[in-house]
Amino acid sequence: MTEPQLGRQLLAAHRTLAAELVVELEERGWPELRASQASLVLNVDRRSGTRLTELARRAGVTKQAMMVVVDELEVRGFVRRTPDPDDGRAKVVRLTARGRTLGAECRRAVAAVEARTRRTLGGRRYEGLREALDLLLETEEETA
Amino acid sequence: MTEPQLGRQLLAAHRTLAAELVVELEERGWPELRASQASLVLNVDRRSGTRLTELARRAGVTKQAMMVVVDELEVRGFVRRTPDPDDGRAKVVRLTARGRTLGAECRRAVAAVEARTRRTLGGRRYEGLREALDLLLETEEETA
DNA sequence: GATGACCGTCAGGTTCGTTGACTTCCCGAG
DNA sequence: CTCGGGAAGTCAACGAACCTGACGGTCATC
To answer: CA-to-C1' distance for A84 and D22, Å?
Structure first.
């Protein structure tokens, strides 16, 4: 009975943090923005832009999954795809001006959520949590 | 950049544990059983059965969500719904004989996953993880 | 130059969950 | 005693975040 709770708690905690981030963004005037989208914005290199595959790698998901998020962000004008001059197959995802503004806001929102989490947990437990998750996923990766 | 990783890691860790549980169950001869289903089986009171709403409450989800899982388990003969003698509205979810056998297997599978997790994390970190999650979700609940 | 690997894409699925809108039934207050 | 609020289970529709598989171009190398 104890362990399925762990799995569930992990999911619940994920949802909680994601929801908090969304609220934080809303309060800052960026409504209808989801955590996955904010996360993507933060992963695009501000200067040179970043390829889709690289974004997927950073986020630890498939390129198909990442493409959906890029699509959404592109429609809303936060990001645009430009052909990669060095590679005809590739496209580079870049932030628009609006996207850069959003990026700044996202960093603040993320910091706020992190600070709140850290406060309710205490610094020690917070660090412990991060460490445990790092370890868990790292060793999973190796076995895979 | 640091925090959105936390949220994502929580999700990834959830998927990992759920997948491990499924594999564990498969290896024990119970294929095509998902983590949510196993979790439900473990939450049904072995003697008296449990109402749908109560199951939903225990799992921290809506009764609609819980109903789906009960439906699946009922179709496969692990569980059945009987009218509650004390309340004409309610039905009691009970394990069938096959369901009880599955329950025992689930407990073992869960224990195996837990043991493996504990081993990769170390007892100290494992306990810390659980504690952190408890705290995180508990205080979330209060604010809600 | 053919061959295999790689980039982005399209199409379709899966898992776990949600909100909203009933119907049926319980219960307590007027 | 009825009658109105509320709770139990259900039906339907949807959402978020993923996945696998299959392709058409492009690169890079042999």
So the answer is: 24
